[in-house]
Amino acid sequence: MFPSEIITIITKNTNEYARFMLSLNWTATVEEEIKAYLGIVIMMGLHPLPDVELYWSTDPFYHNPVISAVMTCKRFKKITENLHLSDRARELQRTQVGYDKLGKIRQVMDILNKSFKDNCIESQAQSIDESMIKFKGRSTMKQYMPKKPIKRGYKVWARCDSETGYLHQFNVYSSKCESNEDGDGGLGFKVVIELCRTVQADTLIAFDNFFTSLPLMEMLHRKKIYAVGTVRVNRKGLPTCLLPHKGDKRENKLKIGEFMLQYADPVSVIKWRDTKDVYICTTAYDPKKVVTIHRTQKDGQKAPMICPYAIEQYTRNMGGVDRLDHLRSSYSIGRKSTKKNWLRLFWYMLEVACINAYIMYSMTHKTSSSSHKEFRLRLARSLINNFSTRIRDHVIFKNKRGGQYGVADEVRMRNVGHHMPYNAATRKRCRFCSTKKEVKRSKIICKVCKVTLCATPCFENFHK
């Protein structure tokens, strides 16, 4: 999740911002409370309600006892009101030279990018694409993308693992490209070069026709990075023999499954006929190599078709950012509870940090059956870590998949010395040893887990 450095920065800058704004009834926060606050935000994504106050509602239909037991609604809103990521004393005004539109999140974004890079071994196949953060408020950075599922919002350039969707690096589009190095090749050229500065040699990068150009392919090849991407027919430098010409029917001379190619070291340009002409550039594959794919016909049957290997590999490796967006959409964190525009960007960073943590957990615990939803719940509980500004009774969690005893592992194994027995009024089934064939009953109940157990040896074995 978030490195401890980010939690420290948020805690320090939130307290300083509250003092600067003379926030009424503000009590200085601590790192444990900020972690608990983030855990609550993650839980709200798992259990969405139309209004944040409903989590503290007295109506049992809306009331969430786990969230309301950590802090009051008033305290939650007060932290959201004063939440701040940057040093207030060093922030520049819009009229000052060097003003950065992303200044409020820049430090946290840089730390997070470095953490993503250091905590995962980069794969040999990655993709670069744009991702959208839903936002309909007023902002000079807001973009309109009519062909995207999220049409209005912030645009994020992302480099992800092609197979898992792990986010290696991201950058928010702020209406200009921060880097002007490596020549003037247009926005797509500069975005790819910026995202690939830390990419290891012999890595494959896939991207779509917004980014692809011949100068970009040549630049990446000089850096020993292989690339494949669809290309627009109006890009400069494409071989004229492959391009359609007005006034004749030369663009229709290819039949379905046929292709043409032109090679000029190190770039190959391929034109392949599917339902329409597809153009692709590559420095990674033999342009003459082909594979057989199957296309579904109008009658529902699948017919074999010849396809260039480069196009088949492009289709396979291009979906990394889409996988990340799919995981983001499952349990969205973003809320409309504040007027701070940059907070939507912070929720995005929290989301991708959770997703990257889940992907890393899945890779290192391949035998675990924990789902994305269950992992987020466990992550939120570990962030809260029994923190509370109230005195509360512990809530028992029933884990349908992994919980053999109906108690979450983080509850069952934490502070074992506090798990003391006491006598109940009636005898109940032992949660550890009782079965359908042989029912064993006991009056001993664990003070923390709230389950009935035999005094020996079940009470000791249950907590091992």
Automatic annotation (TrEMBL):
InterPro entries tied to this protein: PGBD (IPR029526), PGBD4_Znf_C (IPR032718)
Residue stretches spanning the membrane: none
Domain called PiggyBac transposable element-derived protein 4 C-terminal zinc-finger: residue spans: 424-463
Coiled coil: none
PiggyBac transposable element-derived protein domain sequence ranges: 1-358
Pfam name, any one: zf-Tnp_2
The protein's name: Jg5251 protein
